[in-house]
Amino acid sequence: MIGDLILAATDERAEGRHAVLVARAIAGGAASARWTVLTVAPIVSKGPVSAGRLISSTDPEPVPEFDQFSGWLGAEVLGGVGPPPEVALAFGVPGIEISRLARLREANLIVMGRRARAPDRPLELGETSDAVVRRSDIPVLLVPTRVTGFRRVVAALDGTERARTVLQAAMAIAGRLGANLEALMVEPELADESQPWMPSPMPRARTVQFAELLKGGPGGEDPPLTVRRGNPIEEILAHVQATQADLLVIGYRRGGPPKVIAPTNIARNLLHSAPSAVLTVPL
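Request: output the structure for the sequence above.
Response:
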């Protein structure tokens, strides 16, 4: 179940703090949920700390970096409604240490911030977030600061058997967030289907098949299924923009080189380009 143990990974920036507050809200929505807030400090050359060292509020040590991080979190995060988090400090490479602690704590969900697009940064995903998504074997939620609530969730399905995994994750997080869920499929457009005089095409086999999978969504209601035709990347982004969706759920293949976004890699292009928060579900 998504959110039984949530790992919020952050640095001392606004995007990271926002991700921590989102993780707290998700954890606070379930009595059984636990959550950990992690930051990763770099290794100083010839310093006394080795990579992989972990310091936790469950067994604290007098380390200046830990005290500084706890102070930065403050009462806004450590107090308030919901279960208090474990505060953790790891030393090493963030993309490696975040994935390591997620496995160590048997986390079900990683929450991270997502920086805003800038003219000199055409990609909206940071290097650490990219590394975690490529390594993680659990869902990763990437949240920009402009997303402050989750009312509408769109699950992008490719019509294959693996889409069941994406749909299940989307149903779980929509239920946890109390959000409306919609499934989206993009069918290839045939040459003659674009003619205005042609009748509306009949539903294709996989569309009919996945309509059956949508039975019994969050709140006991069947999520609606929208079918668009055309280029998957363009159509999914257009749908997210048109519906003002707060969260896009996509399947994501692990591995691959960093900073390489091939035009044919649908998930990677969506992850870097979507204006909403994105939940990646490992396939």
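The first strand starts at residue 5 and ends at 9.
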